[in-house]
């Protein structure tokens, strides 16, 4: 059903005034919109960030062409379109009828007479499309709107003219596995007969409520579509044979649409005569309710000011901190484990004080900007901040002497342990938290001759307690302060560890250092590979950041001379596949989660560049396209790379080519912080400016829409709970991720 | 008075989308299309249109008096309709300014006049539909009578079918047609079969006249004419509708009895009568078609008036 406009929806699109939102997706938003003369239409728009890609514009134009070909009898009549506008738009009639999937959800399996009438009408629609040399290629229940006068086929997003490879070249044509033809599933030509296959699948769905090849993973569906018989259980006896014929794996044995239409229905009566009461009532409701929409625009969220929560004096950890080594960073406020001071939303914390609005205007009572916040003490030293990890429903961080686990949604402190000494002693694959544990008796006795075994254990996410170690290695010294749990993925933990005597004065010449992989389930070491010797006395850890992509352990390492290198190792052998120096990158600025996708590692902090994961070569570098521009750390989301460009604001680049697809305009982009990567939400991207975290909309204006006061300087997305977790300046806090 | 078959008038779903042709203006509105299908040949007390305010925002059902009608009486009844309550009431919400040619209007929802509904359905409506609309109309009249008002204008054309139930328009059509004491037979807009005999002869409209008119209207819905032979009516409400049509007002049944007989064996809750299925498919199709056509209609946009320097 239509929903109100948001405050940042455009005031006008072409000659249209948006009235309500009908839907929104990855590509754009569909509005109910009206001309000054009162004509009311469905207005489909394309996100500006996508529209900046000429390939997507082409797709939009082709969709418009296909919608025009199908016409208003069998499709949503095209009223007007502008594929060249900054925000391309397509205005069609507002179709009064539910999508077929909603219709089946509402009425249950449809009666045979309805299925037959629907099928015959769809044969007419496909006949008209095919006669114009257009193949739909993505027929599915949600793309069929059932009106009182017959079905209308919509969403020609991947329809294409026969022989027109413009879209396949773009590589966005995917189809829907549940209703795909076998030839499409196997990557071959999907012709008109493929649409017949999909149509029969639709009719099976209409008659039974189930697609003919069931539900499940795309890969399973693709297999079943190609190799197994359709499930026609529940299809009325008279319909089953003809639908089975349409679902033949061999496209040449499927009937033509004209013959199929005649077979399904004799054309007697009007279409509405064949519809069940519930479906008719839904159509009538839609025809009426569209007149009862009052244009509404949600107000912009009031600008809020965070209320200072009195900070308990921080007690600094006495333990010597590893200077510049990414070690313990935040001391927990208060004394000792569990003494986390916090103020939760509506909780027992001090009541937020109202703050006067700008110019003393009568704004509503201010409330806390954050959904929750927990007080943590200042970093005890001038070291780098702790790393935040999203683990299942928790966010965890090492602060001073404690490992804290906080429920991301509520801010509830699940656990706070005192067994932790260094950030690099904990790692997660997002589900499981593992850590290095200090062997019993090692406290106050680290220098014991022979050292202590290196122990690895899983952390119980309810209690924060380490389970019995899953691996124990006596050939490494488990108490060396420079040991690092580098990362964990797919049941394997990667550890950098040393052999030799304990020292709290940095590396020793007598130590030898290795990187090894250990299987978490068996505790077996998979491989061990040496690391170059560190300069004696240095406290600089080997690894700045690491992650696993496909078969590669990709990492940023700090060399003895303070330079940063990107290194990729084979996860099966530990062999270095490539090792590339990154000029102009400071080690302290890249201690951030790595920005990688299947093909590239992206490095910012200076120029923004993409390194091919296959060979480490530079795939692209902003030095050529935008000489002089400098960027903060990037983040990857859905094939795009985002980063703050210094003095300019956020930019989104194509991961494959580095082309700028979107850039922020106006607002406070020039003040964008370039020390932390932006956080990308479904509707907004978040970037810090001054003391505020700004939400910037993905719309044509690219303008900031709201801001949150924050002391944080490090932000991660906790997607499961739809929260942004901010850390810094005495607080851990959460803001809505939208 | 048989409904013609296959009415395809604009309001039942024909062309309504042409912009730019010379369109008639009434008050602040531009007419989009006539609501009534002339081929049904059922008298309508008002000239009814779907119209839109010049700013494109408000779409309304607009009524004008017949030429020769008394605009003051017409507007007085519209004024009175503002206070109507009940599930089917359609109070006027906008009126002609003093001195302006008479009109009144209320917000648009897709509706088919009862005669048009019979035309698109292809004949008399199913018993279920008649029960549902009869029950809702009787309920509304009962509320109205409780308010101390008489509708004085129930007729086939006054009943509008919307998706969620009937609407009763043309409030006071009988009073507007001529003052009490003046014979009203044959006056324009008054449908003879649904005009109670005592009102036809000039009597002041009273609640029991509404019962007569409702009986005639239900007879029309069930048979296609307002003066049916007794055996044409569905057996279930043959007797009660027959009694509504008694010449002697005192012999007509109270509305409660009519409501009870229309509810028949269905549950006491009259809402269930309007559950999915109460309207035939083709009537719904025509409502959807009308809605789509009016959504698509575009009125010419006025040039922005240039402010006069003074």
Written description of the protein model:
Chain A is of the alpha+beta class and 738 residues long. Chain A has 12 helices and 42 strands. In chain A, the strands form 11 sheets. In chain A, strands 1-2-3-5-4 form a 5-stranded antiparallel beta sheet, with helices on one face. Chain A has a 5-stranded antiparallel beta sheet with strand order 10-11-42-41-40, with no helix packed on it. Chain A has a 4-stranded antiparallel beta sheet with strand order 12-13-14-15, with no helix packed on it. In chain A, a hairpin with a 2-residue loop joins strand 37 (684-689) and strand 38 (692-697). Residues 158-174, 303-367 and 379-384 of chain A have low confidence and may be disordered. Chain B is an alpha+beta fold. Chain B is built from 9 helices and 9 strands. In chain B, 32% of the residues lie in helices and 12% in strands. Residues 1-21 and 303-310 of chain B have low confidence and may be disordered. In chain B, helix 6 (207-223) runs antiparallel to helix 7. Chain B has helices at 71-81, 114-121, 127-146, 173-177, 197-200, 207-223, 235-244, 255-263, 281-296, and strands at 25-26, 29-34, 47-53, 59-64, 94-95, 104-107, 111-113, 159-162, 165-168. Chain B is globular and about 55 Å long. Chain B has one domain (19-292): Transferase(Phosphotransferase) domain 1 (Transferase(Phosphotransferase), domain 1, Orthogonal Bundle), CATH 1.10.510. Chains A and B meet through helix 11 of A and helix 9 of B.
Name the strands of the widest sheet of chain A in spatial order.
Answer: 1-2-3-5-4
Instruction: Tell me the β content of chain A.
Output: 25-35%
Number of helices of chain A: 12
Alpha-beta content class of chain A: alpha+beta
Shape assignment of chain B: globular
Concise overview:
Chain A is an alpha+beta fold and 738 residues long. Helix content of chain A is 16%, strand content 29%.
């Amino acid at each position: 059903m239509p929903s109100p406009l948001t405050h940042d929806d455009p005031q006008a699109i072409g000659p249209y005034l948006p009235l309500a939102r009908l839907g929104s997706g990855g590509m754009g938003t569909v509005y109910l919109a009206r001309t000054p003369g009162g004509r009311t239409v469905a207005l489909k728009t394309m996100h500006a960030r996508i529209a900046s890609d000429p390939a997507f514009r082409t797709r939009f134009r082709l969709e418009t062409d296909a919608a025009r070909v199908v016409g208003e009898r069998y499709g949503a009549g095209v009223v007007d379109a502008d594929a060249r506008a900054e925000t391309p738009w397509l205005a069609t009639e507002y179709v009064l009828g539910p999508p077929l999937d909603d219709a089946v959800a509402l009425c249950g399996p449809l009666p045979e007479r309805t299925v037959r009438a629907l099928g015959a009408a769809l044969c007419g629609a496909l006949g008209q499309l095919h006669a114009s040399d257009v193949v739909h290629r993505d027929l599915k229940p949600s793309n069929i709107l059932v009106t009182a006068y017959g079905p209308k086929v919509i969403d020609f997003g991947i329809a294409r003219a026969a022989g027109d490879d413009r879209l396949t070249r773009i590589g966005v044509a995917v189809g829907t596995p549940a209703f795909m033809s076998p030839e499409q599933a196997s990557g071959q030509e999907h012709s008109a007969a493929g649409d017949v296959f999909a149509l029969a699948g639709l009719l099976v769905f209409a008659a039974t409520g189930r697609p003919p090849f069931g539900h499940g993973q795309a890969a399973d569906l693709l297999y079943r579509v190609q190799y197994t018989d359709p499930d026609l259980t529940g299809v009325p006896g008279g319909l089953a044979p003809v639908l089975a014929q349409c679902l033949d794996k061999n496209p040449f044995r499927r009937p033509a649409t004209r013959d199929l239409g005649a077979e399904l229905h004799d054309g007697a009566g009007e279409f509405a005569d064949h519809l069940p009461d519930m479906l008719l009532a839904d159509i009538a409701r839609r025809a009426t309710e569209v007149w009862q929409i009052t244009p509404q625009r949600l107000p912009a969220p009031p600008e809020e000011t965070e209320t200072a929560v009195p900070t308990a004096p921080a007690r600094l950890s006495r333990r010597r901190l590893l200077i510049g080594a990414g070690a313990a960073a935040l001391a927990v406020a208060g004394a000792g484990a569990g003494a986390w001071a916090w103020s939760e939303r509506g909780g027992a914390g001090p009541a937020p004080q109202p703050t006067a609005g700008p110019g003393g205007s009568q704004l509503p009572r201010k409330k806390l900007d954050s959904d929750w916040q927990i007080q943590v003490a200042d970093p005890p030293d001038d070291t780098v901040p702790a790393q935040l990890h999203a683990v299942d429903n928790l966010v965890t961080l090492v602060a001073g002497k404690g490992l804290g686990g906080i429920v991301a949604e509520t801010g509830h402190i699940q656990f706070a342990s005192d067994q932790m000494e260094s950030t690099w002693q904990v790692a997660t694959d997002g589900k499981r938290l593992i850590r290095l544990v200090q062997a019993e008796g090692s406290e106050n006795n680290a220098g014991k001759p022979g050292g202590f075994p290196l122990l690895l254990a899983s952390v119980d996410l309810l209690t924060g307690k380490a389970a019995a170690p899953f691996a124990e290695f006596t050939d490494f010294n488990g108490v060396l302060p420079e040991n690092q749990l580098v990362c964990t993925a797919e049941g394997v933990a990667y550890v950098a560890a040393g052999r030799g005597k304990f020292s709290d004065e940095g590396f020793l010449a007598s130590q030898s250092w290795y990187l090894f992989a250990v299987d978490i389930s068996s505790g077996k070491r998979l491989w061990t590979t040496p690391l170059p010797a560190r300069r004696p006395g240095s406290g600089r850890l080997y690894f700045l950041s690491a992650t696993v992509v496909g078969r590669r352990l990709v990492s940023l390492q700090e060399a003895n001379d303070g330079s940063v290198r990107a290194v990729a190792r084979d996860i099966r052998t530990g062999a270095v596949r490539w090792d590339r120096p990154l000029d102009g990158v400071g080690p302290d600025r890249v201690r951030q989660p790595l920005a990688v996708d299947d093909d590239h590692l992206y490095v910012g902090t200076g120029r923004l560049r993409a390194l091919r994961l296959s060979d480490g070569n530079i795939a692209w570098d902003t030095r050529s396209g935008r000489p002089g521009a400098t960027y903060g750390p990037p983040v990857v989301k859905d094939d795009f790379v985002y980063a703050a460009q210094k003095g300019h604001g956020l930019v989104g680049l194509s991961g494959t080519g580095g082309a700028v697809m979107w850039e922020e305009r106006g607002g406070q982009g020039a003040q964008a912080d370039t020390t932390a990567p932006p956080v990308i939400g479904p509707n907004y991207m978040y970037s810090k400016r001054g003391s505020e975290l700004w939400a910037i909309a993905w719309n044509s204006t690219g303008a900031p829409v709201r801001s949150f006061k924050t002391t944080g300087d490090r932000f991660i997305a906790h997607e499961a709970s739809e929260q942004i977790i901010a850390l810094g300046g005495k607080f851990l806090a959460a803001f809505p991720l939208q | 008075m048989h409904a013609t078959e296959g009415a395809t008038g604009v309001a039942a779903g024909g062309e309504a989308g042409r912009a730019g042709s010379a369109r008639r203006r009434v008050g602040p509105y531009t007419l989009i299309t006539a609501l009534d299908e002339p081929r049904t040949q059922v008298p309508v007390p008002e000239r009814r249109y779907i119209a839109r305010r010049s700013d494109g925002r408000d779409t309304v059902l607009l009524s004008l008096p017949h030429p020769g009608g008394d605009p003051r009486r017409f507007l007085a009844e519209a004024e009175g309709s503002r206070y109507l309550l009940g599930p089917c009431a359609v109070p006027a919400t906008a009126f002609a300014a003093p001195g302006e040619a008479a009109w009144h209007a209320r917000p648009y929802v897709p509706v088919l006049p009862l005669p048009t509904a019979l035309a698109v359905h292809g004949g008399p409506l199913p018993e279920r539909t008649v029960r549902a609309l009869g029950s809702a109309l009787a309920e509304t009249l009962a509320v109205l009578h409780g308010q101390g008002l008489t509708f004085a204008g129930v007729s086939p054309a006054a009943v509008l079918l919307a998706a969620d139930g009937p609407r009763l328009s043309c409030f006071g059509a009988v009073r507007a047609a001529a003052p009490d004491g003046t014979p009203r037979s044959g006056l324009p807009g008054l449908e003879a079969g649904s005009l109670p005999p005592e009102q036809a002869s000039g009597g002041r409209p009273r609640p029991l006249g509404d019962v007569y008119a409702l009986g005639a209207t239900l007879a029309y819905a069930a048979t296609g004419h307002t003066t049916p032979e007794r055996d044409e009516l569905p057996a279930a409400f043959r007797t009660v509708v027959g009694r509504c049509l008694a010449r002697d007002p005192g012999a007509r049944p109270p509305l409660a009895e009519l409501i009870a007989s229309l509810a028949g064996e269905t549950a006491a809750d009259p809402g269930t009568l309007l559950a999915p299925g109460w309207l035939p498919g083709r009537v719904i199709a025509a409502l959807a078609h009308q809605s789509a056509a009016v959504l698509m209609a575009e009125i010419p946009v006025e040039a922005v008036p240039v402010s006069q320097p003074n």
